[in-house]
Amino acid sequence: MSILLITGTSTDVGKTVVTAALAAAARTAGLSVAVCKPVQTGVATGEPGDLAEVTRLSDVTAVFEFARYPDPLAPDTAARRAGLPMVRCTEVVDRVRALDAEYDLVLVEGAGGLLVRLGVDGFTLVDLSRALDAPTVVVAAAELGTLNHTELTTRALTAERLPCAGIVIGSWPDEPGLAERCNLDDLPAVTGVDVVGSVPAGSGYLHSKEFSAMAPTWFDATWLTSTLKFGHDSPRLQINAGPTIYR
Fold this sequence. Notes:
alpha/beta; Rossmann fold; seven-stranded parallel sheet; 7 strands; 21% strand
Protein backbone atom coordinates (compact mmCIF):
# COMPACT_ATOMS: atom_id res chain seq x y z
CA MET A 1 0.00 0.00 0.00
CA SER A 2 1.18 3.52 -0.69
CA ILE A 3 0.23 7.06 0.33
CA LEU A 4 1.29 10.16 -1.58
CA LEU A 5 0.54 13.76 -0.60
CA ILE A 6 0.13 16.49 -3.21
CA THR A 7 0.71 20.15 -2.42
CA GLY A 8 1.16 23.29 -4.49
CA THR A 9 3.56 26.18 -4.26
CA SER A 10 0.45 28.38 -4.18
CA THR A 11 -3.17 28.28 -5.29
CA ASP A 12 -4.11 27.75 -8.94
CA VAL A 13 -0.90 25.99 -9.98
CA GLY A 14 -2.64 22.86 -11.27
CA LYS A 15 -2.64 20.73 -8.14
CA THR A 16 -6.02 19.09 -8.80
CA VAL A 17 -5.20 18.23 -12.41
CA VAL A 18 -1.86 16.73 -11.34
CA THR A 19 -3.69 14.71 -8.70
CA ALA A 20 -6.08 13.47 -11.38
CA ALA A 21 -3.15 12.62 -13.67
CA LEU A 22 -1.44 10.57 -10.97
CA ALA A 23 -4.72 8.81 -10.23
CA ALA A 24 -5.29 8.09 -13.92
CA ALA A 25 -1.76 6.77 -14.40
CA ALA A 26 -2.11 4.43 -11.44
CA ARG A 27 -5.55 3.27 -12.53
CA THR A 28 -4.26 2.61 -16.06
CA ALA A 29 -1.54 0.45 -14.50
CA GLY A 30 -4.18 -1.66 -12.79
CA LEU A 31 -3.93 -0.30 -9.26
CA SER A 32 -6.88 0.40 -7.02
CA VAL A 33 -6.82 4.13 -6.24
CA ALA A 34 -8.47 6.35 -3.66
CA VAL A 35 -8.21 10.13 -3.67
CA CYS A 36 -9.05 12.22 -0.65
CA LYS A 37 -9.31 15.93 -0.05
CA PRO A 38 -9.29 16.47 3.71
CA VAL A 39 -10.72 19.97 3.40
CA GLN A 40 -12.50 21.68 0.49
CA THR A 41 -13.12 25.41 0.60
CA GLY A 42 -14.86 27.85 -1.71
CA VAL A 43 -17.58 25.40 -2.70
CA ALA A 44 -21.13 25.34 -1.37
CA THR A 45 -22.95 22.22 -0.27
CA GLY A 46 -24.09 20.21 -3.27
CA GLU A 47 -21.71 21.91 -5.70
CA PRO A 48 -18.94 19.93 -7.44
CA GLY A 49 -15.54 20.41 -5.83
CA ASP A 50 -12.01 19.34 -6.69
CA LEU A 51 -12.78 15.66 -6.25
CA ALA A 52 -15.53 15.85 -8.85
CA GLU A 53 -12.90 17.15 -11.26
CA VAL A 54 -10.57 14.28 -10.33
CA THR A 55 -13.32 11.78 -11.08
CA ARG A 56 -14.29 13.49 -14.33
CA LEU A 57 -10.74 13.36 -15.63
CA SER A 58 -9.44 10.07 -14.24
CA ASP A 59 -12.60 7.97 -13.84
CA VAL A 60 -11.46 7.20 -10.28
CA THR A 61 -14.66 7.11 -8.24
CA ALA A 62 -13.25 6.30 -4.80
CA VAL A 63 -12.99 9.92 -3.70
CA PHE A 64 -13.39 11.19 -0.15
CA GLU A 65 -13.91 14.70 1.17
CA PHE A 66 -13.78 15.09 4.96
CA ALA A 67 -14.96 18.70 5.40
CA ARG A 68 -16.29 21.54 3.25
CA TYR A 69 -16.61 25.26 3.85
CA PRO A 70 -18.24 27.76 1.46
CA ASP A 71 -15.82 30.69 1.67
CA PRO A 72 -12.72 30.59 -0.61
CA LEU A 73 -10.28 30.99 2.29
CA ALA A 74 -7.75 28.99 4.25
CA PRO A 75 -9.67 26.06 5.81
CA ASP A 76 -9.32 27.14 9.44
CA THR A 77 -10.51 30.66 8.64
CA ALA A 78 -13.32 29.36 6.42
CA ALA A 79 -14.48 27.02 9.19
CA ARG A 80 -14.57 29.82 11.76
CA ARG A 81 -16.52 32.12 9.42
CA ALA A 82 -19.04 29.40 8.64
CA GLY A 83 -19.41 28.37 12.28
CA LEU A 84 -18.60 24.79 11.32
CA PRO A 85 -16.31 22.32 13.11
CA MET A 86 -12.71 22.06 11.97
CA VAL A 87 -11.13 18.74 11.09
CA ARG A 88 -8.56 17.22 13.43
CA CYS A 89 -5.20 15.90 12.29
CA THR A 90 -5.76 12.59 14.08
CA GLU A 91 -9.11 12.17 12.34
CA VAL A 92 -7.58 12.74 8.90
CA VAL A 93 -4.68 10.39 9.66
CA ASP A 94 -7.00 7.62 10.83
CA ARG A 95 -9.24 7.90 7.78
CA VAL A 96 -6.31 7.96 5.34
CA ARG A 97 -4.75 4.93 7.03
CA ALA A 98 -8.06 3.10 6.71
CA LEU A 99 -8.08 3.88 2.99
CA ASP A 100 -4.46 2.75 2.72
CA ALA A 101 -5.47 -0.64 4.08
CA GLU A 102 -8.08 -0.99 1.35
CA TYR A 103 -6.47 0.54 -1.76
CA ASP A 104 -3.13 0.11 -3.53
CA LEU A 105 -2.61 3.88 -3.69
CA VAL A 106 -4.07 6.76 -1.70
CA LEU A 107 -3.54 10.29 -3.01
CA VAL A 108 -4.11 13.11 -0.52
CA GLU A 109 -4.60 16.53 -2.07
CA GLY A 110 -3.91 19.47 0.20
CA ALA A 111 -5.51 22.90 0.21
CA GLY A 112 -3.40 25.66 -1.28
CA GLY A 113 0.24 25.48 -0.21
CA LEU A 114 2.20 23.31 2.18
CA LEU A 115 1.77 25.46 5.29
CA VAL A 116 -1.89 26.37 4.92
CA ARG A 117 -3.68 25.69 8.21
CA LEU A 118 -6.15 22.87 7.68
CA GLY A 119 -7.93 22.56 11.00
CA VAL A 120 -7.72 22.22 14.77
CA ASP A 121 -4.47 23.52 16.31
CA GLY A 122 -3.38 24.82 12.91
CA PHE A 123 -2.11 21.51 11.58
CA THR A 124 -0.75 21.51 8.03
CA LEU A 125 0.26 19.06 5.34
CA VAL A 126 3.64 18.92 7.08
CA ASP A 127 1.93 17.34 10.08
CA LEU A 128 0.09 14.87 7.86
CA SER A 129 3.31 13.91 6.08
CA ARG A 130 5.00 13.21 9.39
CA ALA A 131 2.08 11.31 10.90
CA LEU A 132 1.48 9.22 7.79
CA ASP A 133 5.18 8.77 6.97
CA ALA A 134 4.31 9.75 3.40
CA PRO A 135 6.24 11.74 0.78
CA THR A 136 4.94 14.92 -0.84
CA VAL A 137 4.78 15.87 -4.50
CA VAL A 138 5.18 19.61 -5.05
CA VAL A 139 3.16 21.08 -7.92
CA ALA A 140 4.82 24.23 -9.23
CA ALA A 141 4.09 26.89 -11.80
CA ALA A 142 6.23 27.17 -14.92
CA GLU A 143 6.56 30.93 -15.18
CA LEU A 144 8.72 33.64 -13.63
CA GLY A 145 8.60 33.56 -9.83
CA THR A 146 8.37 29.81 -9.50
CA LEU A 147 11.98 29.41 -8.34
CA ASN A 148 11.38 31.33 -5.14
CA HIS A 149 8.00 29.75 -4.41
CA THR A 150 9.24 26.24 -5.06
CA GLU A 151 12.45 26.59 -3.09
CA LEU A 152 10.52 27.94 -0.10
CA THR A 153 8.22 24.91 -0.24
CA THR A 154 10.97 22.33 -0.58
CA ARG A 155 13.04 24.04 2.12
CA ALA A 156 10.10 23.76 4.50
CA LEU A 157 9.98 20.01 3.86
CA THR A 158 13.74 19.68 4.26
CA ALA A 159 13.71 21.65 7.52
CA GLU A 160 11.18 19.17 8.89
CA ARG A 161 13.22 16.23 7.52
CA LEU A 162 10.31 15.13 5.38
CA PRO A 163 10.69 13.55 1.92
CA CYS A 164 9.82 15.44 -1.23
CA ALA A 165 8.89 12.94 -3.93
CA GLY A 166 9.51 15.37 -6.78
CA ILE A 167 8.38 18.53 -8.52
CA VAL A 168 5.68 18.50 -11.20
CA ILE A 169 4.95 21.48 -13.42
CA GLY A 170 1.20 21.90 -13.14
CA SER A 171 0.62 23.68 -16.45
CA TRP A 172 3.31 23.66 -19.11
CA PRO A 173 2.56 26.21 -21.87
CA ASP A 174 2.28 25.28 -25.52
CA GLU A 175 4.87 27.93 -26.36
CA PRO A 176 7.20 28.29 -23.37
CA GLY A 177 9.21 31.47 -23.10
CA LEU A 178 12.75 32.00 -21.92
CA ALA A 179 11.80 31.98 -18.22
CA GLU A 180 9.89 28.70 -18.49
CA ARG A 181 12.70 26.98 -20.38
CA CYS A 182 15.34 28.18 -17.94
CA ASN A 183 13.22 27.17 -14.95
CA LEU A 184 13.37 23.52 -16.00
CA ASP A 185 17.13 23.58 -15.37
CA ASP A 186 17.06 25.99 -12.45
CA LEU A 187 14.35 24.30 -10.36
CA PRO A 188 16.43 21.18 -9.61
CA ALA A 189 19.51 23.34 -9.07
CA VAL A 190 17.94 25.59 -6.42
CA THR A 191 15.79 22.95 -4.70
CA GLY A 192 17.86 19.78 -4.98
CA VAL A 193 14.66 18.04 -6.15
CA ASP A 194 14.08 16.63 -9.63
CA VAL A 195 11.37 17.88 -11.95
CA VAL A 196 9.67 14.54 -12.53
CA GLY A 197 6.86 15.59 -14.83
CA SER A 198 4.78 18.30 -16.41
CA VAL A 199 1.15 18.52 -17.39
CA PRO A 200 0.47 20.36 -20.66
CA ALA A 201 -1.66 23.48 -20.33
CA GLY A 202 -5.30 22.80 -21.06
CA SER A 203 -5.18 19.13 -20.06
CA GLY A 204 -8.01 19.71 -17.63
CA TYR A 205 -10.35 20.18 -20.60
CA LEU A 206 -9.64 16.76 -22.08
CA HIS A 207 -12.16 13.92 -22.15
CA SER A 208 -11.45 11.28 -19.51
CA LYS A 209 -10.38 8.64 -22.04
CA GLU A 210 -7.85 10.94 -23.66
CA PHE A 211 -6.71 12.28 -20.30
CA SER A 212 -6.15 8.79 -18.90
CA ALA A 213 -4.32 7.65 -22.01
CA MET A 214 -1.99 10.64 -21.94
CA ALA A 215 -1.45 10.98 -18.19
CA PRO A 216 1.33 8.35 -17.83
CA THR A 217 3.41 10.13 -20.49
CA TRP A 218 3.45 13.34 -18.45
CA PHE A 219 5.73 11.82 -15.80
CA ASP A 220 9.15 10.25 -15.81
CA ALA A 221 8.49 6.52 -16.23
CA THR A 222 11.05 5.32 -13.68
CA TRP A 223 9.85 7.84 -11.11
CA LEU A 224 6.21 6.93 -11.69
CA THR A 225 6.86 3.22 -11.23
CA SER A 226 8.95 3.59 -8.08
CA THR A 227 6.98 6.39 -6.41
CA LEU A 228 3.53 4.91 -6.92
CA LYS A 229 4.94 1.45 -6.10
CA PHE A 230 3.39 -0.26 -9.10
CA GLY A 231 5.49 -3.35 -8.56
CA HIS A 232 6.25 -6.12 -11.01
CA ASP A 233 2.93 -7.86 -10.36
CA SER A 234 0.83 -4.94 -11.60
CA PRO A 235 -1.38 -6.53 -14.27
CA ARG A 236 -1.35 -3.73 -16.84
CA LEU A 237 1.86 -1.83 -16.23
CA GLN A 238 2.71 -0.33 -19.60
CA ILE A 239 4.42 3.00 -19.01
CA ASN A 240 7.20 3.56 -21.49
CA ALA A 241 7.32 7.28 -22.12
CA GLY A 242 9.19 9.94 -20.17
CA PRO A 243 7.78 13.25 -19.00
CA THR A 244 6.22 15.54 -21.56
CA ILE A 245 8.48 18.52 -20.94
CA TYR A 246 9.15 20.69 -23.94
CA ARG A 247 12.12 22.97 -24.13
